[in-house]
């Protein structure tokens, strides 16, 4: 028993931190680490939100070139970009989703208009042969060489 309870003749035990101080220090360090992790998570979320917002602004700017008649080549890449971003719209915030949906709807309207204009122009510029050819292209021919609609 005497060996376990050695006297501290030089007072060195007072220099060593007590268990209570060590536990308190550990709690402080854990709290600081938790706050640092929370700040890092908040920064990461804010950065992700900013990146998504930048992507939406890029899509909106790209759509600005969509109607420029001198740059018809821009339509296909813009269509592809808008479609791809629209596929992953669930990852965006609700306000961002609304902005994406507006651009997507405008692109779809433009595509529909282009198809209608192309059909009207094609109907106007076709010869009688081309009209008959498109009419008979969808028909079936039976074994007896009869045409069926």
Automatic annotation (TrEMBL):
Which organism is this protein's natural source? Answer: Pyramimonas obovata
Q: Where is this region: Disordered?
A: 108-129
**Protein's name in the database:** Uncharacterized protein
């Amino acid at each position: 028993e005497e060996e376990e309870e050695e006297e501290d003749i030089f007072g060195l035990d007072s220099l060593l931190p007590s268990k209570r101080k060590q536990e308190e220090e550990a709690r402080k360090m854990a709290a600081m680490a938790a706050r640092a992790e929370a700040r890092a998570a908040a920064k990461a979320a804010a950065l992700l939100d900013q990146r998504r917002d930048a992507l939406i602004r890029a899509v909106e700017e790209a759509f600005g070139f969509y109607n420029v008649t001198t740059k018809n080549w821009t339509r296909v890449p813009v269509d592809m970009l808008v479609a791809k971003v629209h596929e992953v719209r669930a990852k965006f915030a609700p306000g961002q989703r609304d902005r994406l949906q507006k651009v997507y709807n405008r692109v779809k309207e433009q595509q529909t208009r282009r198809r209608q204009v192309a059909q009207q122009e094609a109907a106007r510029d076709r010869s009688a042969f081309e009209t008959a050819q498109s009419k008979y292209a969808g028909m079936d021919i039976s074994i007896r060489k009869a045409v069926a609609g």
